[in-house]
TrEMBL record, chain A:
Top-rank taxon: Bacteria
InterPro entries assigned to the protein according to its UniProt record, in alphabetical order: DUF2849 (IPR021270)
Pfam families the UniProt entry points to: DUF2849
The protein, known as: DUF2849 domain-containing protein
From TrEMBL, chain B:
Name assigned to this protein: DUF934 domain-containing protein
Family matches, as Pfam families: DUF934 (PF06073)
Gene source species: Sphingomonas aracearum
InterPro entries to which the protein is assigned, alphabetical: UCP030820
Automatic annotation (TrEMBL), chain C:
Keywords assigned by UniProt, alphabetized: 4Fe-4S, Heme, Iron, Iron-sulfur, Metal-binding, Oxidoreductase
Protein name: Nitrite/sulfite reductase
Lineage, top ranks: Bacteria, Pseudomonadati, Pseudomonadota, Alphaproteobacteria, Sphingomonadales
Organism: Sphingomonas aracearum
Top-level lineage group: Bacteria
Any Pfam family the entry gives: NIR_SIR
Record's keyword annotation contains Repeat: no
Residue intervals of the Nitrite/sulphite reductase 4Fe-4S domain: 119-270, 404-540
Amino acid sequence: MKLLTGNDLVTGDVIWWTGSGWSRHVEEAGDVGDQGEPIALAEEGARRVNGPVIIDATMTPDGPRPAHIKDRIRALGPTVRPDLTLKPADPNAGSWVI
Amino acid sequence: MADPDATDTGGETLLRLRTDEVHDEPAVTLDAFLDGQTNATAVRLEAGDDARALLPRLGQLALVEISFPTFRDGRGYSSARILREAGFAGELRAAGDVLVDQLPHMRRCGFDSFAPQAPIDPDVLRASLSRYDHHYQRAADAAVPIWKLRHG
Amino acid sequence: MYKYDEYDQSMVDARVEEFRDQVQRRLAGQMTEDQFKPLRLMNGLYLQLHAYMLRVAVPYGTLDSRQMRMLAHVARKYDRGYGHFTTRQNIQFNWIKLADTPDILAELATVEMHAIQTSGNCIRNISSDQFAGAAADEVTDPRPWAELLRQWSTFHPEFTYLPRKFKIAVIAAPEDRAAMRLHDIGIELTERDGRLGAKIFVGGGMGRTPMISHEIRDFIGADDLLSYLEACLRVYNRYGRRDNIYKARIKILLHEIGADEYRRQVEEEFVAVKALGLDPPAAELERITAMFAPPPLTAEPVELDRSDPDFAVWLDQNVRPHKQPGHAIVTISLKLIGGIPGDASADQIDVMADLAERYSADELRVTHAQNIVLPHVAQADLPAIWQALTETGLAEANLDLISDIIACPGLDYCALANARSIPVAQKIATRFADLGRQRELGELKLKISGCINACGHHHAGHIGILGVDRKGTENFQLLLGGSGAEDVSLGKITGPGFSEDGVVDAIERVTDKYLEVRESGERFLDTYRRVGMEPFKEAIYG
């Protein structure tokens, strides 16, 4: 599957395209298929996203899993500061990245 | 600082910090100026051209236009200073990908007219050109460097 | 320390308003990201993996307690309670909102701080010796010269769109504590015929093509320094490559045309530039120098009670002699075992500010090895300082030992990284946690970069590690034999790379081999230089 992601222009937060808007949680990301580019262009033009990119991912029982480690780190947060990730209480969050 | 005078020249905006008439002879390339059109009074330098090639006949030039193919290409700043340091008093025009936030630096390097390929908001330009009261370095403009203000 | 006058203050104040205006125009859609990016970068604002990152300048690594407390305040109010000290003596905040940055810069300006030119293709923060003004081996305090260069380079109209970034370091001692030879321009202050001047090195750098700088001028007087640098930069601005970002640093220009040809062009340009009156009068350097006058240090030498072994080790490892008898230079390690190299919490930053105010003439330094220095400490105060550091977890006695690791933020934070640097640093420090074992190994500078851009100085490590991406998996190459000090050299890759755990094992095999073959008095680097790569290669790969 293909995901559309980028950073919120104002806050810098990592955001994922859900199909109808943006979410901070990769679990809510939707497959953009071949529609990623026009959506990215429109959303960037509307200044809702900075640096949108289309990435590869696979669907898993836990939701979409980005193919590249960099995007998994973006999705979670820094592996060396679990307290600052989106899942501070999940001891297995780090192993999802690797 | 006087407001720049915006002149509409055939669809392209020309911002000038000079009060003399716009020079109307078309600018020739450096190669043409050095070989053939040796009587030209206006030259266009590309970013990679050596501005010092103009020095032997600087006196005959009324306008030198320096091209900025992208705003990231800063060679033109050095070209401008070299010409001003050699005493060039004619119009020095920055042309191409010239952005409003760059104009203060360009002016300090000796540019006194600008032909930006995208329009520049006059209010933003006015704020941008009057932002800094002082400058640390001596450059090609008339600004007195801060160290000179400190020590007289 | 340097104090702003009305002119300096007006510059940073105007810069805040300029950036406020630029941010507003970006948020209002009057600028594209492509146009805004170089403007935000010239104010130290990056877009990293998780958020915007703001790099705040610490000119030549010097700051006072008020400035340090402001960093803690920024960390608490606008970030997530911590900051990261960098190899160019700056500090980075990792979780910044674009809309907050003008306010952050306005707050910084109230304590004479800014983020000007901490990124972008311009002249960056001028770095220097963290022991400046305190070291016994310096010919003069290099910081007044660095401040002169700070002012000259700030908003330099000609050199703001250079082919690539430009880093300058100034030192004034034979021992190079600032990696001077690995800068675009390195300046070593020297004395000749009773006159101070600068030896100029050009074309050093790390990155994907590491190079050691060339000596371009053996002496230039203070009265000509700015003209000379103007000439050095102008030749680069005109002829540095702009067709390929990876070949755009000045080191490539020198490599391609040769140091002799570069020198010839600079000398020719210098003749032209010298006539322009660009150099301030001697009175300006004197004005600045007066502000760096040594603090009154009147303490008498004392015999310290070394009965607490932890204190004694810390004294031996992290405390250096001061040029003034009765005083000492303390390095506070930000390399806690298992911690993140260079990170400090807002509370720790406040503690260090308090210690500086109380015990170190109100001064702190940031080191290029990502530690903090209290430069002017009375020997008699060392026990109290150590006690306070111990209570806040900052008394790690590992300066210049294997766990005093330089590491870039790596893939945990950085958009350019290929691999995570910090977890490797943590695993190595944990493996070698035993301080006795570390001290047995002696001085061993280990440096880790998470990509080829080499922010973690891996080329200059006695042991260097470079993280790469191998088909989507983190892989680590090992280098041996680099140095960023006065015995500068570039490390060589040992061979095939390793997994994260594999590289830790490989390092242990390297250090075991070193212990086996070293001769008396040899550091790891000395042994490597004597025996070469082969014995280590054999130990690693068998």
